[in-house]
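The protein record passed on for reference:
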Amino acid sequence: MLSTRHGVRVLGSPDLAAFGDLVAEDPVVNVFAAHRARVTNLEPRWLGGEVWGRFDEGRLTAACHVAANLVPVQAGEDDARVFAERALTRSRTVSTILGPQAPVRAFWDVVADTWGTPRDQRWDQPHLEIDRDPLVDGDPLVRRTTLADVEVLYPACVSMYTEEVGVSPELFGGSDFYRTRVKNLVSRGWSFARIEDGRVVFKAEVASLSPAAAQVQGVWVDPELRGTGLGARGMAAVVEAVRRDLAPVVSLYVNDYNVAARRAYDRVGFRQTATFATVMF
């Protein structure tokens, strides 16, 4: 039902068209929200949470995805503060706040004193895109993985996640839960890797997909082989495959301090189009 304060209410399947128009205002930055809407129809039981919409004279002007990930969608700083005030009326259920830097910071400023000490805060994460052929040749040994690769692929996925996030993904639901996620990505054709002699030396996955864009996450190079060019050539191969088969634009976001990764993405031809931020609990 519509909140009488600030014009905020929970969205549902009747709002799909309006939500689609909203995410289309910046379809690459909003690819996560577009993907979630496509696979859940904005139904809370499939979302594992809710999507809140803010309205102005009956028009949807901003939204906020509130599940394991809390993500502002086309939200200005005032919108973010309004969503944060609503969030304070309930217990925190989210494990991550992420999205464009300005609304994430505005949201966090409101809830910080109540939601507890985060495990990490990353306030400067360049959001990168590429909508053309890579500037370097793709690695011909990078391919889509198959279910037969999962036993070899899974340890690399755990290593990547642990290195990136700081804790093992197996802490969140156990190894079976995370292994199922890996298998799902493989089954969709969203997992790419170079595997040599039973060893993953490069990998990456598509995490979110819409007709406009694909967002890549989980990029990883075997630590013993970093600095050899595997990352740039591997990402070039992923870009080629994704743009050929899935979506015209490939996006990702990277920590500002990850100089090696940023250098590799620059070599491939990615350009920065926004700045993201992430708060992790």
